[in-house]
Structures are given as C-alpha cells and as structure tokens.
Amino acid sequence: MKITEAEFTGSFTETGKCPPADLPEFAFIGRSNVGKSSLINMLCNRKSLARTSATPGKTLQINFFRINRNIFFVDLPGYGYSRIPKKDRLRIAALTKDYLKKRTGLTNVFLLIDIRLPQLESDRKFMEWMAAEGIPFSLVFTKADKLSRTQQKKYVEEYRKKLQERWEELPPVFITSAKNKAGKEDLLRYIEELSLIPKRNSS
Fold first, then answer.
1. Maximum distance among all alpha carbons in the chain?
2. Which domains does the chain possess?
3. How many CB atoms lie within 10 A of CB 6?
4. Which of 153, 1, 7, 147 is nearest to 66 (CA)?
5. What is the pLDDT of residues 59-116, one digit of tens each?
6. Taking phi first (over 0 means left), then psi (-120 to 50 degrees means alpha), and beta for anything else, what does residue 201 get?
7. How would you class 12 by CB atoms within 10 Å of its CB: exposed for 0-12, middle for 13-18, buried for 19 or more?
8. What is the pTM of this model?
9. C-alpha distances out from residue 53 to 29, 37, 128, 149, Å
C-alpha cells in the first residue's frame, strides 16, 4: 500500500458527530508521548499531518484523517498522563471507549507501546478490555531506533512471554520507528490487507 493522499477531516468530542462510518477505520492509541502523531505522519509521508507536541496529553479529541479517499486513520487521545485534570481524564476515557464500542467502521486498533519501557499495567488493562469487548487490535512498538536490533528482539520476546501468561492467542506485533521509518512497509501492507475485511456489525 502506498499513501498518495492524506487529509485532516476534523476533530470530534462526541462519537455521534464523527464522519459517517462508511469507510474502514484504523485507530491509533497508546499512552501519552508514545509517538502516535509521529507514527501517523511517518506512514503518510507528511511532517505535520497529525500534530506532534513536546507536552504529553495534548490530544483531547478524536482526530480523523482520510487516507487515499478510501480509509480513515483515527488518532485517539492518549492515556496514562496524570497531570491532566481528573475530570478531563474521565471524559477522555469515556469518549475513547464509546468510539471503540460503537464505530461500525472500526477495522483495527493499533495499540502503541514504547519499546524502551517495561510492560505497564495501564497497557495490559487496556488490552484486556479490548479483548473482552471483541475489538480487534495489534501491538505497535515505537521508538525502535533507541535500541539495537538485538535489544529490540529481546524486548519483544520478553513482552510476548508475559502476555502468554494470560493470553492463549497473541495479537499481531510490529516494530516501528518514526525516525528511520522502520516497520513502515509491514504496517502499510497489513492495513491494506485488513481494508478488504468487512466492517464490524453494529451491536
């Protein structure tokens, strides 16, 4: 898959106000400062399609990007940043879960994990929640340029072993770097394959 067109569609604070669910949607989520915007920009060959910030927790809305006129990338608010007021954290969590549970166009969620950090409880709980809700997701390890190839392999193997303690089947895994574009082609190929899968039925 090659992305030739990418445009910002809008930011939304309510699921009901999001664009019509008539195209496959690929959502990106993870802890604040994990590199969601940088990954989206890297996939789209754009420097500032998705806004990046030095301050974690800046994405407070659901941001839609129309890709090649036939799919959506959806940048969801990050989680795990304690400096955001509690009322905002609760609102963001409710918005995110409402979107993930209701959007019939949702094809896959890419859960981003900083490859330098140990397995975090917030990530594990979010994975378990998605699994319980029947929401398809994949793991995308970010910032791989910070580690050597050997370190990357060791980290992912250890991460998978910890997941196997609780999971019988593991989600697909991708190792990426927005800086050197590692994993870009694999991720785009996967998105292209999933784009052919029928959308989820509404519950």
1. 45
2. 6-194 (3.40.50.300)
3. 19
4. 7
5. 578 999 999 999 999 999 887 665 677 787 888 889 999 999 999 999 999 999 999 9
6. beta
7. middle
8. 0.90
9. 15, 9, 29, 27
